[in-house]
Design brief:
The chain is of the alpha/beta class and 123 residues long. It is built from two helices and eight strands, in the order βαββββαβββ.
């Protein structure tokens, strides 16, 4: 139930820190097919925009805390079978969970990016 205290979310940005921006760009753009929205060289920062005002920001840093790399990012998407087939067609992707259908009917799979972030794709 919406109340006057409930915030209205118009967009979401997920920001992650990676060790190698080029490697991450190769993964997000080349393997997953994300379209680059912004690139800011001085701070080594890129952004991708999905449907419905969802953004993913990827920032490069020289130091990463491995204990903080257990975050899960969920992408609701269409055409999950086609994406799954593309990722299994000779690409170098670390698959955490294969494509499967849940008891409540959603299809999902989980991969990790080059820095260990778990990416969950759901339809």
């Amino acid at each position: 139930m919406l109340t006057t205290l409930t915030p209205v979310v118009e967009s979401v940005m997920i920001a992650i820190t990676v060790s190698d921006l080029k490697r991450s760009r190769d993964f997000y753009e080349g393997v997953l097919g994300f379209e680059l929205k912004r690139f800011y060289e001085p701070t080594r920062w890129v952004a991708y925009q999905g449907k419905g005002g969802v953004y993913l920001a990827v920032l490069e840093s020289d130091s990463l805390d491995p204990l903080s790399l257990n975050n899960e990012i969920v992408f609701n998407c269409e055409g999950i079978e086609a994406l799954w087939l593309r990722l299994n067609d000779g690409t170098d992707v670390n698959i955490i969970e294969p494509l499967q259908q849940s008891l409540w009917g959603e299809k999902r799979f989980v991969v990790s990016d080059p820095d260990g972030y778990q990416l969950v794709f759901v339809q």
